[in-house]
Design brief:
By secondary structure, the chain is an alpha+beta fold. It is 37% helix and 20% strand. The protein has 15 helices and 16 strands. The strands form three sheets. An eight-stranded mixed beta sheet has the order 1-5-6-11-10-9-7-8. Strand 15 and strand 16 form a beta hairpin. Helix 1 packs antiparallel against helix 5 and helix 5 packs parallel to helix 9. The radius of gyration is 28 Å and the shape is elongated.
Length: 425
């Protein structure tokens, strides 16, 4: 019978990989909480209309990349391709937004059907931040300052640089879009095939093209900055001043537009040159119209998403994974003979008295020699040896495997104290 394997682009996370992910996720959550962000959780499946209305029906995500299906009642459902729309839907549905400010974080899998490659999967994982009810550039700046702190605490600040831009209002963008389309339509034969397709659907994404000939063509194209109103210009100038005063380095990228329709004013990306083509590790911006677009009252908002696969790859590339976070065993309990009842009691006593202790009990029997091989292979610092003689005497053998100490027989009443003393060395 043919063995069933995982779906292409949806990868397993194995036990030896999990400690790094746990470290990264715990670090992000801890930094988020220090800035007043609180966790929210929402389903991985939403009504398809949510993403069509928020992301935009002519975006690549909606047109080509969503996992969409009808349920048994004929309702069109979609595995979430991103988190912002779901966060807005959940926050509005439960009354978290009107006349309130909220700072929320979430994490979990997202789904897009695209070509699997390094750092880009069909099931990928994001950590997201969303701040609602605050219209000024100060919250934009704090979000970027918080991310800069996160990179420092993860030890990867030198591998990331911040690019920012301002998209202005939807009205300014519409005027710019019309002039850009006119400019490019007159030179359509010089565009690459993907840009030709985008010209009639999502022309601003052409600015993000990686094709050198298209980039050269854009050098003389209209510039979005010339279309910004005074309010947008002031917002962008204040953001820059706040970042400069906080010591957060940045560069202005006038072609940074992001791929989702809901962005306005501030947009940003944290990029790296260390992961090849998949250089964006974190991206986001302001989306002041999205809550109203999804049926709520006008609510200013800003947020971002961090790609966890790419973040872990960057930590590995920069040798920034701390030593000692890999899962290891402190104590391996060897149980020889008919002693399992006593072994389980001893193990539970140690776990209760030493909550930090990582203890593995040998199951399935085996000779003393074979069990000691397993103890050594586990990486444990200590082996505790319990045989029928030890049970009769009320003792436990304590054999250091990786510690500079002699083997000894210890009374059960003194075992907790002995193990703690040895492992505290």
């Amino acid at each position: 019978m043919k063995q069933i394997q995982s779906v292409k682009g949806m990868e397993d996370l194995l036990p030896e990989q999990s400690p790094v992910w746990q470290y990264v996720e715990a670090t992000i959550a801890e930094v988020a909480q220090r800035y007043g962000y609180r966790e929210i959780r929402f389903p991985i499946v939403e009504q398809t209309e949510l993403f069509k209305r928020s992301i935009g029906e002519v975006t690549d995500i909606v047109e080509k990349e969503m996992y969409t299906f009808d349920d048994r009642n004929g309702l069109s459902l979609t595995l979430r391709p991103e988190g912002t729309a779901s966060c807005v839907r959940a926050s509005e549905e439960h009354g978290l937004l009107y006349n309130q400010t909220q700072k929320l974080w979430y994490t979990g899998p997202m789904f897009r059907y695209e070509k699997p490659q390094k750092g880009r999967l069909r099931q990928f994982h994001q950590f997201g931040f969303e701040a609602f009810g605050m219209a000024g550039p100060d919250v934009d700046a704090e979000l970027l300052i918080m991310l800069a702190r996160l990179w420092r605490e993860l030890g990867i600040a030198d591998g990331l640089s911040l690019q920012i831009n301002n998209l202005g209002t939807s009205e300014a963008r519409a005027r710019y879009r019309a002039d850009l389309v006119t400019y490019l339509s007159e030179r359509v034969e010089q565009l690459d095939e993907d840009s030709k397709r985008r010209l009639s659907t999502n022309p601003l994404r052409i600015l993000d093209s990686k094709i050198p000939s298209t980039q050269a063509l854009l050098n003389d194209a209209p510039s979005l900055v010339d279309y910004l109103d005074e309010t947008s210009r002031s917002h962008f100038a204040q953001l820059q001043r706040l970042l400069e005063s906080a010591g957060v380095a940045f560069e202005i990228n006038p072609r940074l537009v992001r791929g989702l329709d809901y962005y306005n004013n501030t947009v940003f990306e944290w990029v790296t040159t260390k992961l090849g083509a998949q250089g964006t590790v974190c991206a986001g911006g302001r989306y002041d119209g999205l809550v109203e677009q999804l049926g709520g009252r006008p609510t200013p908002a800003v947020g971002c998403g961090i790609g966890l696969e790419r973040l872990v790859l960057l930590l590995e590339e920069m040798n920034a994974i701390p030593a000692g976070i890999q899962e290891t065993v402190d104590v391996y309990l060897v149980a020889v003979g008919d002693v399992m009842a006593d072994a389980l009691v001893i193990a539970e006593t140690l776990r209760s008295e030493l909550p930090w202790l990582r203890l593995v009990t040998n199951f399935g029997g085996g000779s003393f020699k074979s069990q000691m091989k397993k103890a050594d292979k586990s990486g444990a610092q200590l082996a505790l040896v319990l045989g029928e003689d030890e049970v009769a005497k009320g003792e436990v053998g304590v054999k250091p495997l990786r510690l500079d100490s002699a083997q000894q027989q210890v009374a059960r009443a003194q075992l907790v104290e002995t193990v703690k003393a040895l492992l505290d060395q």
